[in-house]
Design brief:
about 180 residues, alpha+beta, two-stranded antiparallel ribbon, 5 helices, 8 strands
Length: about 180
């Protein structure tokens, strides 16, 4: 194992836990929207307008499609202006949480690979935390030439326009 990978390995589970918590909050918010709309998907995520741009159509349609995966249709109306009543799909909601956790783990692995590539060869690495695990962590490395560098990382948990959660880890060398 690389020294950088060893130094940041304790953080991996915290990253996965944070992504899981965000996924659960997203699902709770989405479920509340459905409940408030009487479980009518046309109220929560209406079909795209007929005269919208292609870009708007794609965003609205994909959002509707992503929410439709969280529910089961109890009866499908043949008309867009009719209510389409749905019920919550616990099986897919749980699958959504598991996928989010897997993607967080993958993002973490990509983060470690990015650090190794960005920093280069090191003989020693030490991780420090200022405001929690990802809010403001600093990696202090001793390079093979003897120089010491500090790298600051912050975690940003974003949600795409389609409702998909993902982590971003901007990392910068500090002076």
């Amino acid at each position: 194992m690389n020294a950088i990978e060893l130094a940041v390995s304790p953080i991996k589970q915290s990253s996965i836990d944070a992504a899981e918590q965000n996924a659960k909050e997203f699902l709770a918010t989405t479920k509340a929207k459905f409940e408030a709309a009487g479980w009518d998907i046309n109220q929560v995520a209406p079909f795209p307008r007929k005269n919208c741009s292609d870009a708007e159509f794609k965003v609205v349609y994909k959002y509707r499609k992503s929410l439709a995966m969280l529910v089961k249709f109890t009866g499908v109306s043949g008309r867009r202006d009719q209510p389409q009543i749905v019920c919550w799909d616990d099986v897919y909601a749980n699958k959504f949480i598991e996928q989010t956790k897997e993607e967080a783990a993958l993002q973490y692995e990509m983060y470690v690979a990015k650090l190794i590539k960005k920093i280069g060869d090191v003989t020693e690495a030490k991780m420090g935390y200022i405001n929690g695990l990802w809010m403001n962590s600093t990696l202090i490395v001793t390079k093979t030439n003897g120089s010491i560098e500090k790298w600051n990382t912050k975690c940003i948990i974003n949600r795409s326009v389609y409702g998909k959660l993902f982590n971003q880890f901007p990392t910068r060398k500090t002076k």
